[in-house]
Amino acid sequence: MSTVGETVGADRSREAGARTRRQAPERRRAAAADPGMTVARASRALGVTVGGIDLSRHFSDAEIATLRDAFNTHGLLLFRDQDVSPEAHVAFSKRFGELEHHVLNDALLDGLPEIYILSNLKKDGKRVGRAGAGHYWHSDLSYMAEPSLGSLLRAIEVPEVGGDTMFANLALAYDALSAPMKSFLEGLEAEHHFAKVQSRVVSLGLNKPLTPEQLAKTPPVVHPLVRVHPETGRKSLFLSPGFTTGVVGMTPEESAALLDFLADHASGPRFVYRHQWKPNDVVFWDNRTLMHYALDDYDYDEDRRHMHRTTIRGEGAA
Ligand SMILES: O=C(O)CCC(=O)C(=O)O
Ligand SMILES: [Fe+2]
Question: Which of 42, 88, 227, 238 has the most CB atoms within 10 Å of its CB?
Fold first, then answer.
């Protein structure tokens, strides 16, 4: 059976790329259960736009398997024009796994704690969600023993310009390393700690400090620097600079030099897709193979940026 993933082809071989180009049409019809579903590459580095789909409808298991295959292959699915309710957002997300209730419990939607609100809006002088989230390269929940599988972020209000999100393909970045560097990294581990980002967002006045309960739920954890995707078997760097505090066993200087090199390498333009949000975009990305960065180039007081996220639970990184 052919799937969305196979239809658009992975970009792993020159031959596959040539075949894709020869097929030419911008929007190929996916051989999915939904005959109207289309897919188109979002960038060379990663991502596909999936069209002709309404996320609030019911999906068969075969359709979900098709989408999951495309997700695993391309790392990111973009669905435009999804004017869906928070309940439908949660229901669709649940088809891909169990959902997290984010540790920042005052940023969760009332009555629907699977929705984490990212927003600079205020109601009655009080922030309605988490402001200033993700303004650094990171992989969601890398500071947990079981980091997230993927996140589904829905834009509700976005600035006219600014507030894009960048995504970097850490499997491509790994592939591009030399053989000696790959073997050097094998077996190395890094420590991740949520508290690392707190000082910055708190000093900017964007958020309250973590409570003792929130700190207790997020002790430092250790993950490999190179991880294997549990579904594709593909190797990736596991980088999350916003949350990573050091490489286990290295001096702070060695650790900083190595982590800075890897972060610079992996965030190079050829590995990156930069998403310019439109209202009702839903972006579903794979935290097991991408890192992302929310640009803070908009005006926190003048611009309105309001988003809902669901976060799919993952397993320990291996
Ligand atoms: O606001 C964004 O674009 C992304 C923020 C973020 O890092 C996330 O939702 O995981
Ligand atoms: Fe994030």
Answer: 238
Selecting among 34, 140, 281, 286, the annotated active-site residue is 140
Residues 46, 23: Cα–Cα separation, whole Å: 19
Instruction: Give the pLDDT confidence of 94-126 residue by residue, as tens digits.
Output: 999 999 999 999 999 999 999 999 999 999 988
List, as one string, the DSSP characters of the chain. ---HHHHH--SSSHHHHHHHHHH--SSEEP-SSSTT-EEEES-SSS-EEEES--TTS---HHHHHHHHHHHHHHSEEEE------HHHHHHHHHTTSPBP--S-GGGEETTEEEEEEEE--EETTEESSB-STT-S-B-TTTTSSS--SEEEEEEEE--SS---EEEEEHHHHHHTS-HHHHHHHTT-EEEE-GGGGHHHHHHTTSSPPPPHHHHHH---EEEESEEE-TTT--EEE---TTTEEEETTS-HHHHHHHHHHHHHHHTSGGGEEEE---TT-EEEEETTTEEEEE---S-TTTS--EEEEEEE------
Please list the residues that pair with 8 across neighbouring strands: none
Convert the pLDDT of each residue in 50-102 to its tens digit: 999 999 999 999 999 999 999 999 999 999 999 999 999 999 999 999 999 99
pTM beyond 0.85: the answer is yes
Structure tokens, 201? 């967002």
State the ligand closest to the CA atom of 142: 2
Look at residue 84 in the predicted model and tell me its pLDDT. Answer: 97
Q: Taking a C-beta distance cutoff of 8 angstroms, is the pair 51, 270 a contact?
A: no
- Catalytic, 292? Answer yes
Q: Is 309 a catalytic residue?
A: yes
175 included as an active-site residue: no
